Structure to design on (326 residues):
């Protein structure tokens, strides 16, 4: 019988433990390097807090105080709770101003969105030269300072030297000779609407035109092959594709028109009477005419709340429609 050699097992070597890692050293230079970006943006954040947040907080505090000219000079204003808000909400003139503010906002926003959309669609269909001329004109109109544009409109509608009166009388409308536009409440309101629409359309039109260039041409060609007209293409192709941009422009125009102050203050100061007085103008009138800075601050806070409420309601409606279409 063959003899089988027995294989002796190899001796087991003890498992070596991994050498402990050296403790990480604290690198002061690395920590300073990681804090350097925050140090760079700290001045900008500090300036923003001082210029934006501090005035807002200060206005909120003043709206809860008895803050008049005496308190402005000597300090030590007394907290009165919601008394200033109750005073405003019990004033019939305040509610008339609120109604006029929403009417002013609605007219301006509707005109701006309609005209800007038509201008954007027109620019999209123009050739290069025409498109360049229109876009340059829009940029120049948009770049004009607010006070300068308001002064130009004042001279256009001047009762004695205005071009508008001269043009109307030249075509036989003698009733407009030396017509006092700013002494008539409806006329002054219409002039301010025209001014704000003229200033707002360039931004909205350029933004919408930029968005129109992103819509694929194949969608338009397919819609035309299916027999869709221009209106149907806009409703079924253009607007659904650009809904977020329309929402953004609409929101910005609501804010822009709701807080319009410089144009009204320079042109009419809210007159004649209260025909052009909206909430921002009412707040300044209340604060300056009778030194009721507390009521003016309360009116400003109500303006912010109303403007935020309008935007929240619109966003909710838009998001609900988007959920239903999915």
């Amino acid at each position: 019988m063959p003899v089988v050699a027995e294989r002796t097992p190899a001796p087991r070597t003890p498992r070596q433990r991994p050498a402990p890692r050296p403790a990480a050293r604290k690198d002061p230079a690395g920590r300073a390097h990681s804090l350097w970006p925050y140090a760079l943006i700290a001045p900008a954040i500090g300036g923003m807090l001082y210029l934006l947040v501090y005035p807002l907080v200060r206005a909120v505090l003043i709206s809860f105080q008895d803050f008049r000219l005496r308190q402005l000079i000597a300090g030590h204003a007394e907290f009165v709770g919601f008394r200033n808000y109750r005073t405003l909400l019990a004033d019939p003139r305040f509610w008339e101003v609120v109604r006029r503010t929403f009417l002013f906002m609605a007219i301006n926003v509707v005109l701006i969105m309609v005209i800007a959309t038509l201008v954007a669609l027109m620019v999209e269909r123009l050739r290069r030269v025409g498109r360049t001329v229109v876009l340059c004109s829009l940029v120049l109109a948009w770049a004009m300072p607010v006070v300068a544009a308001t002064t130009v409109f004042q001279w256009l509608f001047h009762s004695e030297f205005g071009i508008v009166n001269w043009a109307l009388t030249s075509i036989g409308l003698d009733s407009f000779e030396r017509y006092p536009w700013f002494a008539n409440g409806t006329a002054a309101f219409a002039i301010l609407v025209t001014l704000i629409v003229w200033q707002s359309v360039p931004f909205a039109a350029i933004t919408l035109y930029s968005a129109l260039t992103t819509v694929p041409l194949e969608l338009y060609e397919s819609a035309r092959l299916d027999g869709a007209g221009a209106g149907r293409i806009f409703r079924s192709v253009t607007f659904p594709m650009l809904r977020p941009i329309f929402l953004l422009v609409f929101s910005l125009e609501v804010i822009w028109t709701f807080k319009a102050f410089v144009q009204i203050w320079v042109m009419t100061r809210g007159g004649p009477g209260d025909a052009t007085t909206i909430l921002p103008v009412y707040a300044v009138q209340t604060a300056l005419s009778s030194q009721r800075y507390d009521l003016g601050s309360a009116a400003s806070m109500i303006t912010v709340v109303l403007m935020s409420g309008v935007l929240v309601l619109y966003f909710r409606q838009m998001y609900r429609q988007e959920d239903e279409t999915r």
